[in-house]
């Protein structure tokens, strides 16, 4: 399995594939791979002649130092997992100085308000960090297709906007959320939950599903209040936000209208660990 740490070396390997007209599928990750990542990687692998997976914990997208320090890492385990898909996968694992060309800092972006709500409101600078690293990674890999999970739906919309604004030729593909058996959205952060809290965390998806069944019968405010009251009863889970929004502009809504797709978004703390999820309504 090829593990490359250097951009020039990666580009040399990929250029030989581009010369043979190969399509390149790219899955950016921060490592600590789980079956959610593997579903994206399998999709990239089945749709492209070459698959690149990047593993890089991006410091500029963390607004919380402790969250960054505690982010799980296990490159050996990641390689073993990737090998279960195929040992033809190319791993790109640069250092921060290498990928940031020596200057580890975020650029400032304007995504027409997509970056201001929900995660943008509660995690200062987060999307500047995400957009900076995704741009650097896309330019380093130069893929035909790049795959992102819908668990980070707001991130996915922002990356689509980034590609549109920069007129990049890469096709961005959103992939459905993978869930644990109790419905908890798969995330590297789940590893940090205690066994019992992880089991109880199905409550988050259960509440999203109930909100979905209320949508169209009750208005957004009453559903939002109901979600808040459900979480107020819980000793384990603390609600940061619940928001019903237009799925393309991410603007909060009050009343359902025809021909618009809606989504409900949630962020919750459990044992100090921040979990996010969303559902199409
Ligand atoms: O979704 C993630 O894991 C990260 O935000 C990404 C896209 C790899 C950028 O660091």
Structural features, described:
The protein contains eleven helices and nine strands. Strands 1-4-3-2-5-6 form a six-stranded parallel beta sheet, sandwiched between helices. Strands 7-8-9 form a three-stranded antiparallel beta sheet. A hairpin with a 2-residue loop joins strand 8 (262-270) and strand 9. The chain is 39% helix and 20% strand. With 281 residues, the protein is an alpha/beta fold. The chain is globular and about 55 Å long. The mean pLDDT is 96. Bound molecules: pantoate.
Give the SSE map:
Elements: E1 2-4, H1 7-18, E2 24-29, H2 35-47, E3 50-55, H3 65-69, H4 75-85, E4 90-92, H5 96-99, H6 119-122, H7 126-141, E5 145-149, H8 153-165, E6 171-175, H9 195-200, H10 202-214, H11 220-232, E7 237-246, E8 262-270, E9 273-280
Parallel strand pairs: 1-4, 2-3, 2-5, 3-4, 5-6
Antiparallel strand pairs: 7-8, 8-9
The structure holds pantoate (PAF).
Helix content: 25-40%
Q: From the alpha-carbon coordinates, what is the Rg to the nearest angstrom?
A: 19 Å
Mean pLDDT figure: 96
Q: Span from first to last CA?
A: 41 Å
How many strand units?
9
Strand residue content: 15-25%
């Amino acid at each position: 399995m090829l593990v490359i740490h250097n951009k020039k070396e990666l580009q040399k390997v990929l250029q030989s594939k581009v010369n043979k007209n190969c399509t390149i599928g790219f899955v950016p990750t921060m490592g600590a791979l789980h079956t959610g990542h593997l579903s994206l990687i399998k999709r990239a692998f089945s749709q492209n002649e070459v698959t690149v997976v990047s593993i890089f914990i991006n410091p500029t997208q963390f607004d919380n130092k402790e969250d960054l320090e505690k982010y799980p890492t296990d490159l050996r385990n990641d390689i073993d997992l990737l090998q279960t898909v195929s040992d033809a996968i190319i791993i790109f694992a640069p250092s921060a100085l290498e990928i940031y060309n020596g200057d580890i800092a975020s650029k400032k972006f304007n995504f027409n308000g997509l970056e201001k709500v929900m995660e943008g409101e509660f995690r200062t600078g987060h999307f500047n960090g995400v957009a900076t690293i995704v741009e650097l990674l896309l330019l380093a890999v130069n893929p035909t297709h790049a795959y992102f999970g819908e668990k980070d739906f707001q991130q996915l919309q922002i990356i689509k906007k980034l590609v549109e604004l920069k007129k990049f030729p890469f096709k961005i593909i959103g992939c459905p959320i993978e869930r644990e058996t109790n419905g908890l959205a798969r995330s590297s952060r789940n590893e940090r939950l205690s066994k019992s809290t992880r089991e109880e965390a199905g409550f988050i998806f259960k509440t999203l599903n109930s909100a979905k069944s209320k949508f169209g019968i009750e208005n957004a405010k009453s559903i939002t209040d109901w979600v808040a009251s459900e979480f107020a009863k819980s000793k384990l889970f603390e609600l940061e936000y619940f928001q019903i929004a237009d799925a393309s502009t991410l603007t909060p809504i009050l009343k359902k209208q025809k021909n618009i797709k809606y989504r409900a978004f949630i962020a919750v703390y459990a044992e100090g660990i921040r979990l996010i999820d969303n559902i199409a309504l």
